[in-house]
Each structure stands twice: as C-alpha cells, then as structure tokens.
Write a structure and sequence with these properties.
Structural class: alpha/beta
Number of domains: 3
Radius of gyration: 27 Å
Oligomer: single chain
CATH architecture of the largest domain: 3-Layer(aba) Sandwich
Distance between the termini: 106 Å
Shape: globular
CATH class of the largest domain: Alpha Beta
Helix content: 40-55%
Largest sheet: 6 strands, parallel
Strand content: 5-15%
Strand order of the largest sheet: 8-5-4-11-9-10
Length: 578
Amino acid sequence: MYRIRNCVLVLINASLFGYYFLLRNTEVLPRERVHFLPSTGARKLLRLHGSLSIKNTTITQSSWDGFHLNDTFGELDATGHFKGVSALGKGGKDDHSRDIGNRKCLNSATNWNKPVTPKHRLDPNRFLIPTVINGPSNQLAGFQQSALLAILLNRTLVLPNFYEHQPAEDTFLKTVVDAGSRIDLDVLRRFMSVIPMSQAVKECNGRFDIFFNAEEEGVGPLMRYLPAIHLQSGIQGARYKKGIGLKQVEEFLRRGNTNMSLIVQETGWLMGDLIKGRKHKINFMELKSHFKSPEKCAHYLKPFRQLGLRPNDTLPYDHPRTSEQILNSPQKFIQTKKDAEVFFGAIWRNVQSPKFIRDVAKDFSQSVLGGNHFAVHWRYDKVDFLHYLCGVHYRPKIADMCNNIKRAAKPKAIARAIAVKLSESKEIFGSNPRSVYVAAPSSVSGFVEAIKTSFDNLLRSDSEHRSLGKVDMYFAKDLFEFVLRNYRPCGHTSNEHNVINDVISQVEMEIGKLSETFIWSKQSTWSQRVLFNRKLHLSNMSLVLDQNIIGLVLDTLDGGRGHRKLMRELQELESGNN
C-alpha cells in the first residue's frame, strides 16, 4: 500500500516539475527562436500556455495564423543551428521604430465592380482559360503566352488558378494561389480584357467547349489534368463514368490516384474538340487561323514557352511594320515572330508583380540594403533543381553544365567571385555597392550562410579586396524578418496560402530587378524573368556587369579576371566613339 502511495506521489511531483519547466521555457521566447520555430511546435506551445511573448509583441493562438511561419526557414545551417536576426534598419542596424500595430498590409484585393476600359478590348462573349503548370515563374511565363494568344484570337482572358511551388509535378491537387497575389491586376485590366475564374464559371455554364493544347500532344495530358481542373476551378472538361460526381472525383484525387481512366468514360469523355499546338518556326498568321474557333469557352492546356518568344523593344530599320502599329493593333499587324516579340514586350510590362510586392522590395532596398546593391541568384539545390535537371531529366548535352555546377558549388569560391565582381564595379563606376543580396531556395539556406561567412572573412583578410570597404550580405532570413516585422497578411492573401513564404520569393525577384548588378543562374526561369525585366526597365549601361554565376565562379577559380576583358572592350568602345 505504502509502495503504491509513494509511486503516485513520485508521478505527481514529476508532472508538477514538468509543467513548471515548460512554463519557464515557453512563457517568453527570444525573437529568433519563435520566428523560425516550426509551426506545429509553436502551436503546441501556444496551446500549453496561451501566448508567447516576442520582445514587445504577444502572439496568441488566435493571431498565430496571421504569421504563417514556415518550417523551411528553420534549416539555416548544416548543423541545424540558427543564429537569430534582429529587426533590421538601414545598413543592417536594429530598427525598433515599428511595432506590430503599425505593420503595413500585404493586400492583393482588386475591385472588380470598378469599371475599367482596357487598351485592348477583346470579345466579351468568347474566352481563353489557361491551365498553367510547374513552379511560380513558369506559371507566369505560361500566363504571358496565354495573354498574347488571347489578344491574337480576340478572346477575353480568364485569370487562371496559380499554385504554390511544389517539386512533385505528379501531385494533381495543388495549393491554389489567388491571381492577385502574383499579378498587379489593376495594371493588367487597363491593358487588356480579363475576368476572374469565378465569372468564367458562370459565363461558360461550368464547362469547356473546345480544347487548345500548347504542346503537340493528344488527349492523354487532358485526361490527366481535367478532373483536378474541374475540382479546383469549377469548370468541367471530362465526362465521368456513371455514379461519379465531383465529390467522388475529390475523394479519388485526395487518395493520390493518378489513373484517370478509372473515373472518366471510356469513349466520348472529352467535352469538345481538341486542337493540338504547334512548335518551332511558327508562322503567326497561321497560328491565328490554327486556333480559330467560334466556340465560346476555350481551355488552353500547359502554355509555357512553346512560341519561343523573348520580349523586345526594337525592330530592324527596314521592317515593314512599325512598333506603333504593332502595339496599337496587334491582331492586324502581328504577322511574324519579330512582330510578336515587340508586342510581347508590352505584355511583360503590363504583367507586373502586385503593388504590395513592389512596395516591400523598395522598402527593403532603401531601409536595409541602402538603396544600391548587388543581387545574386543561386538556384542549384539538390532537392528540386538538380534532381530534376541533372537526375530525372538528365540529357547528355547538359552534362557539362551539371559538372560545372558541382565544381562551382563551393561557398569560398562563390564568395571570392562576388568580391571580384564588386571590384569590377568599383573599376568601372568608381565605387562599389555596400550590400549584396543572395536569393536561393530555402533548402540551401545553410549553404548561403556559409557563403556569407566566407565573404565576411575574405573582405577582412584579403588585401586584394580590402579596398571594397565594409559590404554587408543579406539573404532570405533577413528579408523574412523584415517582412514579418513591418507587414501583415490581409485581404485575399491571408487565407489562401502561406503569405510570407510566397512573398519572399516574389520580393527577391524585385530586389534582383532593382539591383545595380544581377548575377544570375543558367537554366532558371526565375533568373530569366529578372533579366528580361531589367532589360525592359533599365538602360544598357546598367546591365554591363550582369553575368551568370557559374561562369563567374569558374572564371575566378581558373585565375581569370573576366572584368579585365570587359574593361578593354569598354575602352575600345569609348575610343571608337571619340
């Protein structure tokens, strides 16, 4: 009896001590531990004690969802340890001038009730409804191609569902992102006729009438995609077997099934005709006639870069059509690829990041980066990019690139290459930026930390680069802290996807666009988008130092100084002008 009583007392004392220990360790946490705490663990702490104190800010269970912290930001170095960052002000100094009550709104809402007269008014009774694929940058590329085709075909463009980045493309049900979180819809609406998906569902009576495939493919891809499109957009394109409705389609997809022939009819399942796409040496007059159809609601599957267009501003002096003609009357004057590329430039200018994204980028650039900075994009992570390019879809012609990436993926080598580029800037412009921003996937954040450490050590110890002065390096955790400190999710963004994580990548693209020099990654649509935007918005002189990161690092490793060659070319150009 006494033994049982003693055991019970021991258990009670252990429970009380455990609760006391948890109270002491969860009542107040430093900012750095909460900001990068996995969301599941943080919610457990909130349930236990009701609230967490982060310096002068209290987070409760009800307010937690407004922060949307992401587990990926917890993995910040090779050992799993994290050194927290304080609220950053200009030059990286602490800034406590803004508290949680003054945080600005990350708002992507668009007033569709407000009438707008677009420059390019399209047929209000015929629609083009794209389905975009792959990562966010590829989705935007597909959307821009869709905008061009909609104008050529005189069809009102329907804003598609955008999706969060998910490496596994065989996952049919993806997290939908509102179009206003990826595009400035007010700018787009002034440019061309567009409507939201919800309006298209009503206009089309919930079904597609005809199918355009951007690829030269048959009905197979349509069968794979249409059930998920129906579920997530409300527009049906496939007829199902008896007893299969939308509820059964959802259950089927959520179980991870990929064989759609189990739920669609064996014959006559496609609810309209299919027109296959055309690639290579496209005649744009033929393109218009090829996809010409009187049907009301056209589905456009997997647009990406099938038309092979690059945004451009210039035409040969002897070109039979002027830029003004093409920009004002594209349906009449786009007859060749050169014509299409000039108009494609106008589409790029009017498919902008949302205003709140541009505002955050400018705010961070001025407040933290000091208004003048270098930007570097390192895209090469093992989890996604290298697995896809140098693994699953490996091709002999990219063998050299894959080997070069492995050779260049050394933090010290990358740090030295960035220092060489800063020296190049100082030679040409007389001074160098005082800050560098490195954009990279969150899965390689430990690698980026190592680049920063190597860079700081190099500037302190290497006499060759000591003349650069103090140069601060920033990356995603600094931007994450800045956004969380100064902004709050609201409007559409707060309940549709992980706001902060999505905002980071978009803001990083704007930081790249605003940079004095951009060091980019080959084979990256993300980098390509930044380069095209820089070309369209900046002078040629602002682009002279832009270079791909692999080429820069290998040149540095081989003892070369690529900027010397560039300096000679500039001197020759100047002497020629004189």
